[in-house]
Amino acid sequence: MARLILVVEDEPTLRETLSEALEADGFRVTAAADGRAALDRFRSDRPDLVLLDLMLPEISGIDVCRIIRAESPVPIIMLTARGSEVDKVVGLELGADDYVTKPFSLRELSARIRAVFRRGEQAAATAMPPMLDLGTVQVDLAGHRILRDGAEVPVKPKVFELLAFLVRHQGQVVTRDQILELVWGYDYAGETRTVDVHVHWLRAAIESDPARPLLIQTIRGVGYVLRRP
Ligand code: CA
């Protein structure tokens, strides 16, 4: 399946030109015209790369970059105004992978996108172990599977996302609000009980004795922490 690129650009002509050019280049494209729509699209479509304009209505490109980076290692390429050195530095400090200065040629942009994908593949080969051993179970982070004695333990997608989030923050106490914000979406209006229910399901899947959890510990009045064996 072709890689999906999220194009975030408020200027309609540029957004359409970019989308068409990327599609002609063999990518699939989803697009957003402001920062809020960008976060919605990011969460619903799960793109492989985000092309992010810096100056956006609703939520700025800087904030969109920061929020996406808190949730995901997805590659981000910033589109910045000409000669705006400050923006470049801020963008890269916030975790953008690269930046392209307007005006740019589509050919240059395409080369940057392919370079970011290549670097990502090389990093993925060396970074997270493909299989994370929690003692009772093994977690296949890339394949979104939990294995016990070689057999898959079925869990709902959100339960796996919760586990992946806790793994990324292992050893750190995370609050229910943080979990809601980063696993369910920052404007999710649900109750923190949703988190408790999913933690209950996750414990049933990965703890040897869910009534006496060793991996996911409750920090009373605060939240949860994943402790590795
Ligand atoms: Ca703009």
Care to give the gist of this entry?
The protein is of the alpha/beta class and 229 residues long. It contains eight helices and twelve strands. The chain folds into two domains: 4-125, Response regulator (Rossmann fold); 131-226, Arc Repressor Mutant, subunit A, CATH 1.10.10.10.
SSE arrangement:
Elements: E1 4-8, H1 12-24, E2 28-32, H2 35-45, E3 49-53, H3 61-71, E4 76-80, H4 85-93, E5 98-101, H5 106-126, E6 131-133, E7 138-140, E8 145-148, E9 151-152, H6 157-168, E10 174-175, H7 176-184, H8 193-206, E11 216-219, E12 223-226
Parallel strand pairs: 1-2, 1-3, 3-4, 4-5
Antiparallel strand pairs: 6-7, 7-8, 8-9, 10-12, 11-12
Helix pairs in contact: 2-3, 6-7, 6-8
